[in-house]
């Protein structure tokens, strides 16, 4: 009987030791998992850092490109009523469809950064461009008056020539942002402008018979 009790006691002790070992092992594993979790968070942290805070180049890009886009939209609006070519009208619709949302996006950035969204000068009497005519590819008041007075085939040619110049200016501005910007979404938008407007420049030159 005594031997039997001793055997039971030894079995119980062995079982207790086994459970303790399992608990310690689990705790050790848990500590390792926590360490892994800490290291797993670093990629997202670096992705956030890559996004970058906005800088002066981003503010200038958004402020100037909003005004640049507004003029392109104004020119495209004229094409709706004055162009004779359906191809020109379709291009104008495409330009408006791309640039209107980008204006809203960049205006949102400026507001969130505590910066002033530039006043909309498009469509004003006399096409007062103010200081905007110094931006690459911007049309002068005289240019806009000339476009507004043209119609039919003359309008088509004038519109395409002006829009090529306008797009080339936008691409130049976007390349500056690409090189100097710090805010990820703004740099991405600059990339999109370069890609889309370079393709449209090629299309417009073909329509003009230049290539």
Automatic annotation (TrEMBL):
Keywords from the UniProt entry: Signal
Pfam families referenced in this protein's UniProt entry, alphabetically: DUF305
Keyword hit for Cell division: no
Regions of compositional bias (Low complexity) in chain numbering: 35-49
N-terminal signal peptide: 1-28
Cited InterPro entries: DUF305_CopM-like, Ferritin-like
Keyword Signal annotated: yes
Stored PROSITE patterns: PROKAR_LIPOPROTEIN
Domain DUF305: 58-208
Lineage: superkingdom: Bacteria
Region span, Disordered: 35-55
Entries under PANTHER family matching the protein: SLL0788 PROTEIN
Protein name: DUF305 domain-containing protein
Organism annotation: Streptomyces vastus
């Amino acid at each position: 009987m005594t031997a039997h009790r001793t055997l039971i006691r030894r079995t119980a002790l062995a079982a207790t030791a086994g459970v303790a070992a399992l608990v310690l092992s689990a705790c050790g594993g848990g500590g390792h998992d926590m360490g892994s979790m800490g290291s797993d968070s670093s990629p997202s942290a670096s992705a956030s850092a890559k996004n970058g805070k906005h800088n002066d180049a981003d503010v200038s890009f958004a402020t100037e490109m909003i005004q640049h886009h507004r003029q392109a939209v104004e020119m495209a609006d004229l094409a709706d009523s004055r162009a004779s070519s359906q191809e020109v009208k379709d291009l104008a619709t495409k330009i408006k469809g791309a640039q209107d949302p980008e204006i809203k996006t960049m205006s949102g950035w400026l507001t969130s950064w505590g910066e002033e969204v530039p006043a909309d000068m498009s469509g004003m009497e006399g096409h007062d461009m103010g200081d905007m005519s110094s931006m690459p590819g911007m049309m002068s008041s005289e240019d806009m008056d000339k476009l507004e007075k043209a119609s039919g085939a003359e309008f088509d040619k004038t519109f395409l020539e002006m829009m090529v110049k306008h797009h080339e200016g936008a691409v130049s501005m976007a390349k500056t942002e690409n090189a100097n910007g710090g805010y990820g979404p703004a740099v991405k938008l600059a990339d999109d402008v370069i890609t889309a407007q370079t393709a449209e420049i090629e299309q417009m030159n073909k329509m003009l018979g230049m290539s």
